[in-house]
Design a protein that fits this description.
Belongs to the cytochrome P450 family. Keywords: Heme, Iron, Metal-binding, Monooxygenase, Oxidoreductase. This is Cytochrome P450. By secondary structure, this protein is of the alpha+beta class. α5 packs across α7, α7 packs antiparallel against α11 and α12 crosses α16. It is built from 16 helices and 14 strands.
Length: 461
């Protein structure tokens, strides 16, 4: 449909779908199948699309890299995460780094940044490797018995333990499975409330509200236990949790309350493992479908590591492994959509954006934009060689967001994913269980709806 002119402002409006319901607009397709609906609209209407939800609710889907850069960088001060993001995710994270804003956010970000500098990351590598090695006995036993298992679950448990140990010197250990399950309940609940719908208030005792509140109580119990143990420790480890506890307000001199600490700890546990677990899961799935990629990856890993465990110094000698991770995050971005709210009116691509309206960025579709990615559905790690990356718009690829609120843990996640993938590929061949369904679960992050059931085969045996 052609763009129209607003009768009230006289400004050019982005095109809208033809088949919106007269009352509910695009409410039903958004609620039922958001990703496929957006994909179809992108093909029909292009780089910026205006949608109507329930009466009075409008939002824009923005896909062109230049438009994404406008929102995240060039005019970033006009765009905030807004209630559509902060409200739902804040039900889990409170006022942690993911949802806080303004001066408080800047203080917290500055406080945490040293824990993610290169020198700190180098210290984390040994823990990442050791925690992965701890799974070898279990995986070897499964390989001997040709036992099928859900690798998504194992990656979630592994990365959760790594996050706990590296950031807080606390092994989640036997609680990891229950913690992960409760996070999943919370994610699904929050993901639904982020859709442009009218959610039922949390105080209403619906089954979904009750499930969420029970899951949140269990998550809180684990996090408060971590904080309580640390307060009783005489010589605490010099980790991120110690830095948070030692921090003092510049004006009042007060330390963080247990509630503030809880918000930051649960935010970092959530963000510190979810994206990496999903990336590794999709990467292992891809290797079952791409034998040429798997063969080249194995060749690089063996030639560099020669049977040994990787170290942080090996990372620069594993460029293809890193490119496999990057290409995985192109086609299967864990954070597949990024909402923003315009503070004041704006113009994007020549179209009017009203103040206080929602703007939805979408990594899944921008990463597949045919104007910037040749044969975009094909898995091709060499897209990320310096030669082929040269000249590509910066925001044709933004798996960690961008601008001042780019993910603080992006290098942590990339290092962890590269190390873990290299270790698994060096030791095992991965086979997808025949007939196992692979579908997207887009409720919050981009997860495989039914997991990824595989078998491992021990190499050299």
């Amino acid at each position: 449909m052609e763009a129209t002119i607003s009768t009230s402002t006289g400004k050019r409006l982005a095109p809208m779908p033809r088949d919106q319901h007269w009352l509910f607009g695009s409410f039903l397709p958004v609620r039922n199948d958001l990703l496929n609906f957006y994909t179809r609209m992108f093909r029909e209407l292009g780089d910026i699309i205006r949608f109507r939800g329930l009466p009075g609710l409008y939002w824009h889907l923005v896909l062109h890299p230049a438009y994404v850069e406008h929102v995240l960088v060039r005019n970033q001060h006009n765009y905030r995460k807004g209630k559509v993001f902060d409200g739902p995710i804040g039900l889990i994270t409170g006022n942690g780094l993911l949802t806080s804003d303004g001066d408080f956010w800047r203080r917290q970000r500055k406080l945490m940044q040293p824990s993610f500098h290169r020198q700190a990351l180098s210290r984390f590598a040994a823990t990442m490797v050791a925690e992965t090695e701890a799974y070898f006995e279990q995986w070897d036993n499964r390989a001997r018995q040709s036992e099928a298992f859900d690798v998504a679950q194992d990656m979630a448990l592994l990365t959760l333990n790594i996050a706990g140990l590296t950031l807080f010197s606390t092994p989640v250990g036997e609680k990891a499975d229950a913690f992960g399950q409760n996070l999943r309940v919370a994610f699904d609940f929050v993901g639904f409330r982020m859709r442009p719908t009218l959610p039922v208030p949390l105080w209403v005792p619906t089954p979904s509200n009750l499930r969420f509140k029970a899951a949140r109580r269990r998550l809180d119990a684990v996090v408060y236990q971590i904080i309580e143990r640390r307060r009783k420790t005489l010589n605490p480890a010099p980790d991120l949790l110690s830095m948070l506890m030692a921090a003092r307000d510049e004006e009042t001199g007060e330390a963080m309350s247990d509630t503030q600490l809880r918000d930051e700890v649960i935010t970092l546990l959530l963000a510190g493992h979810e994206t990496t677990a999903i990336t590794l899961t999709w990467a292992l799935y891809v290797l079952t479908r791409e034998p040429a990629v798997e063969a080249r990856l194995y060749e690089e890993v063996v030639s560099v590591l020669r049977g040994a465990s990787p170290t942080v110094e090996d990372l620069r000698r594993l460029p293809y492994t890193r490119m496999v991770i990057e290409e995985t995050m192109r086609l299967y971005p864990p954070a597949w959509g990024l909402p923003r709210e315009a503070i004041h009116e704006d113009e994007i691509g020549g179209y009017f954006i009203p103040g206080r309206s929602l703007v939805a960025l979408n990594q899944f579709l921008t990463h597949r934009h045919p104007d910037f990615w040749e044969d975009p559905e094909r898995f091709d790690p060499e897209r990320f060689t310096p030669e082929r990356s040269s000249g590509r718009p910066a925001f044709a690829y933004f798996p960690f967001g961008g601008g001042q609120r780019v993910c603080i843990g992006s290098q942590f996640a990339l290092m962890e994913a590269t190390l873990v993938l290299a270790m698994i590929v060096q030791r095992y061949r991965i086979r997808l269980v025949p007939g196992h369904p692979i579908e997207f679960d887009t409720m919050f992050t981009l997860r495989p709806k039914y997991g990824v059931r595989v078998t491992f085969e021990r190499r050299g045996q």
